[in-house]
Amino acid sequence: MATPRFFVLTIVLISTFAFTSVAQGQTHVRLSGVVVDPSGAAVSGVNVGVKLRCKCSDCPDPNTCECCPGQISTTTDEEGRFSVSVVPGTYTVSARNKEITVNVSPGANNSVRITVE
Fold first, then answer.
1. Distance CA 40, CA 26 (A)
2. How confident is the model at residue 82 (pLDDT cuts 50, 70, 90)?
3. Class at the top of the CATH hierarchy for domain 28-115
4. Under a CB-based contact definition with an 8 Å cutoff, are residues 115 and 37 in contact?
5. CA torsion sign, 57 to 72 to 30 to 40?
6. What pLDDT sits at residue 92?
7. Where does residue 110 rank: exposed (0-12), middle (13-18), buried (19+ CB within 10 A)?
8. Is 109 helix (H, G, I), strand (E, B) or coil?
9. How confident is the model over 33-64, as pLDDT tens digits?
C-alpha cells in the first residue's frame, strides 16, 4: 500500500511538470530597434525600457498593476541597436525623452526606430 508521503510527492511532481510545460509553451519573439539623434546618427549607451501594456480591466494604474510583468531594460550598443526577447503583445518602448507603442507578433518585422533629443 502506498504511503501518504508518496501521494504528496506524486502530486508535487505532476504540478511541477504541468507548470513547466505551460511556461515553455509561450512563444517568444525578438523586438529590436535603433536609437538615433535628430540628424539620424546612432546613439550608443542609451537605456531602453520595454514594458508590456497592461490588459487588466480592473487595474487602476497600469504602471503598478501586479498582474502585469515588469519592465525589461537594456542598453544600445555602439551602433545604437538594442534587442530583447518578449512574448507577443503591445509594448511601450522608451528611450530618454521618447516613448512609442509597438505591437509585437510572431512573423512580423518587430523593429522600431526611436529618435531622441
1. 36
2. very high
3. mainly beta
4. yes
5. positive
6. 92
7. buried
8. coil
9. 999 999 999 999 999 999 988 766 666 665 55
